[in-house]
């Protein structure tokens, strides 16, 4: 076996001087490096698509999805008697190895490719065939004994294998994202509880508004993340609608009429994920709507997470000349010229992940729109865009939680000082002294830096006890339930 970890290494082998074997397809013959599991169709893709320098092996969930589809297909073919049991057993065993993580380095074609994913499907077929030949004690390329197309690809087409495999990969990636997303949501909720009694000034349009607690702010972050968890979870059942059995365009040509149900059942058993055959296989083969749904929902989650990170950067700005309400964990030195400077690097990297997800969604939208007639040829860039977004979002949620949120502290003395001197508290007094009087007092407080509470008492509008009751932290933040105006005796 020769390790080929990506397109560059595979291309070097293809153009090298080492031992080779000859393989032939409908276009002619090529010399293939003797020790690789891939064959001529993969080799042509390496020559044709030197685009991203990122192979499909960068997406392990996709490789596993491909292997699961091939395994389900071979079991269905064995059940239906359209493939010899001995060959089927060999293919089945190789697929099991790939699902377990073996041979992934042999999946070398570029993630973005022409041909609607044909090169990916053929890379998979060739690796399975040659690994099977190796298990049978035969040389690589002895396809008369086990053929990549006639045996491994029996009853299939790229046009039903590839979309099913990328849907499986997306479900696996989405499940992993949801796990991290839930942990991040819980982390924010814990901070909400920790800061429940810490009063602060709320802001609208970056201007002082009315008091709230820091706990309310962090609980709000937690709740908005929970909403996105729910929306992302709702996409999974839609991804589980597959078109296996459609073959080329949805008519099922070359497949036994019983194959679609047999392969669906086996895929469900192997993956542990419910699968449903689309009611209209022609529609399902050409439609990319679910990819837009997933991508759009991912974008929503990324945008909202990015907004939270913007807030964290603002709240921690300073530490002396900014808001400085919270302190983020210091993760690294922030400047090569300014000693002692520490930047909010974790929220910043999450912002950048969000920007990428937003751009990926635009790519998915354009690719989905560009499909023509019975097939969308641009599913490779859709798969690459969404799988990358899932992976990056998962990593972003983890690093935000571990390297930032769990270590946030509140600058309580500063927050208390801000509330005491904030004119925003005058809003709570308007039901008792009227808007005009409150506005006049607010203006005086701003120009003299006097305390609102003192000004109200000095003006004779309310007593000190009445002001204390109305401006209690519980009432200012809304934590103390009230159904209307407190009727106070005349001061």
How is the secondary structure organized here?
Layout: H1 7-14, E1 20-25, E2 28-33, H2 40-48, H3 60-80, H4 85-99, H5 118-135, H6 148-152, H7 158-194, E3 199-204, E4 207-213, H8 214-239, E5 241-242, H9 259-271, E6 276-277, H10 281-286, H11 289-315, E7 326-327, H12 345-369, H13 379-403, E8 409-410, H14 412-421, H15 430-433, H16 435-448, H17 452-458, H18 464-470, H19 473-476
Parallel strand pairs: 5-6
Antiparallel strand pairs: 1-2, 3-4, 7-8
Helix pairs in contact: 3-4, 3-7, 3-9, 4-5, 5-7, 7-8, 7-13, 8-11, 11-12, 11-13, 12-13
Q: Tell me the domain tally.
A: 3
Taking all residues together, what is the mean pLDDT?
91
Query: Could you spell the SSE succession in H and E letters?
Result: HEEHHHHHHEEHEHEHHEHHEHHHHHH
Total helices: the number is 19
Explain the overall architecture.
- The protein is mainly α and 491 residues long.
- The protein folds into three domains: 7-154, Fumarase C, Chain B, domain 1, CATH 1.10.275.10; 161-412, Fumarase/aspartase (Central domain) (Fumarase C, Chain A, domain 2, Up-down Bundle), CATH 1.20.200.10; 422-476, Ribonucleotide Reductase Protein R1, domain 1.
- The chain has helices at residues 7-14, 40-48, 60-80, 85-99, 118-135, 148-152, 158-194, 214-239, 259-271, 281-286, 289-315, 345-369, 379-403, 412-421, 430-433, 435-448, 452-458, 464-470, 473-476, and strands spanning 20-25, 28-33, 199-204, 207-213, 241-242, 276-277, 326-327, 409-410.
- The longest helix is centred in the middle third of the chain and has 37 residues, at 158-194.
- It is elongated, with a radius of gyration of 31 Å.
- Residues 29-359 form the Fumarate lyase N-terminal domain.
- Pfam families: FumaraseC_C, Lyase_1.
- Residues 426-476 form the Fumarase C C-terminal domain.
- This is Aspartate ammonia-lyase.
């Amino acid at each position: 076996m020769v390790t080929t970890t990506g397109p560059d290494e595979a291309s070097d082998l293809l153009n090298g001087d080492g031992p080779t074997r000859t393989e032939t397809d409908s276009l002619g013959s090529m010399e293939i490096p003797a020790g690789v599991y891939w064959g001529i169709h993969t080799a042509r893709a390496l020559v044709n698509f030197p685009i991203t320098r990122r192979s499909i092996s960068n997406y392990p969930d996709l490789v596993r999805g491909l292997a699961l589809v091939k395994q389900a297909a071979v079991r269905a073919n064995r059940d239906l008697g359209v493939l010899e049991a001995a060959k089927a057993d060999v293919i089945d065993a190789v697929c099991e190895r790939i699902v377990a993580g073996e041979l992934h380095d042999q999946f070398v074609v570029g993630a973005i490719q022409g041909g609607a994913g044909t090169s990916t499907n053929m890379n998979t077929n060739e690796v399975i065939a040659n690994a099977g030949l190796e298990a049978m004690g035969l040389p690589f390329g002895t396809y008369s004994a086990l053929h990549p197309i006639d045996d491994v690809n029996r009853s299939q087409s790229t046009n039903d294998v590839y979309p099913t495999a990328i849907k499986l990969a997306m479900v696996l990636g989405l499940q992993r994202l949801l796990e991290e997303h839930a942990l991040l949501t819980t982390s924010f909720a814990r901070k909400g509880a920790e800061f429940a009694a810490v009063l602060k000034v709320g802001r609208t349009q970056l201007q002082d508004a009315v008091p709230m607690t820091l706990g309310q702010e962090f609980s709000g972050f937690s709740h908005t993340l929970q909403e996105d968890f729910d929306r992302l979870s709702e996409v999974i059942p839609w991804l589980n609608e597959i078109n296996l059995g459609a073959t080329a365009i949805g008519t099922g040509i070359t497949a036994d009429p019983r194959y679609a149900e047999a392969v669906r059942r086996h895929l469900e058993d192997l993956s542990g994920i419910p699968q449903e055959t689309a009611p209209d296989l022609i529609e399902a083969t050409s439609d990319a709507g679910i990819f837009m749904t997933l991508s759009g929902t991912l974008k929503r989650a990324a945008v909202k997470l990015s907004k939270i990170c913007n807030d964290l950067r603002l709240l921690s700005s300073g530490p002396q000349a900014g808001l400085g309400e919270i302190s983020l964990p210091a993760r690294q030195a922030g400047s090569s010229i300014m000693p002692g400077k520490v930047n909010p690097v974790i929220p910043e990297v999450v912002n950048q992940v969000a920007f990428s997800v937003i751009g990926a969604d635009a790519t998915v939208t354009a690719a989905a729109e560009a499909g023509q007639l019975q097939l969308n040829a641009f599913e490779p860039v859709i798969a690459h865009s969404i799988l990358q977004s899932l992976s990056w979002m998962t990593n972003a949620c983890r690093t935000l939680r571990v390297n930032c949120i769990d270590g946030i502290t509140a600058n309580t003395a500063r927050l208390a000082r801000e509330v005491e001197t904030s004119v925003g508290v005058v809003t709570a007094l308007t039901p008792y002294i009227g808007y005009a009087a409150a506005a006049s007092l607010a203006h005086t407080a701003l120009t003299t830096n006097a305390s609102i509470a003192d000004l109200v008492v000095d003006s004779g509008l309310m007593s000190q006890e009445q002001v204390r009751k109305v401006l209690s932290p519980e009432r200012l933040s809304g934590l103390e339930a009230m159904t209307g105006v407190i009727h106070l005796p005349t001061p």
